[in-house]
Amino acid sequence: MYDAGKLYVVDALGVLTQLDADTGAVGFQVLLPDEFFVESPPVTSDGVLFVTGGIDLGANLSAISEVDGTNLWTVSVEGSGAGAPTLSGTTVFATFPAQYYAFDRRTGATLWHFAGDVEGGGASTPVFRDGRLYVRDQEGRTQLPNSGVVLDDANGSAVASFECGPPRGAPPRR
Is 103 helix (H, G, I), strand (E, B) or coil? Predict the structure, then answer.
């Protein structure tokens, strides 16, 4: 992740490193709180990095200061996988298989959470636009494989669904 002349890299074990983009000099290096396995890149806005990580059925979402790597807050979530968080103006969204969350970006307070019937890893990165969160559903709300759900960002209610499998007419993968 690049922001304001700095690169932010997180390795699989949760070590977050800030590098100067011009010189490569290390600004800080911190171990993310309670992270065991990180697959997704951090997301940044307004001087704060947001990163998810975890393994098995437990994970965390952390907010980290870009200035010095200080942990601003960490919340535990159900699920695991490689989905990066997504941001709106005041909210950070994190999605895992059939587990969809909205948190206050400043405090980490849970705004809403949907818990479906599916467990495990394999998260995907949601997309936010115009008050809607687009999530690959993975059989959580729609109960259909290769489908997606559109959520209202204010309360997490489903407002639509969409197909997100391979393009029609595409040859099968080998």
Answer: strand
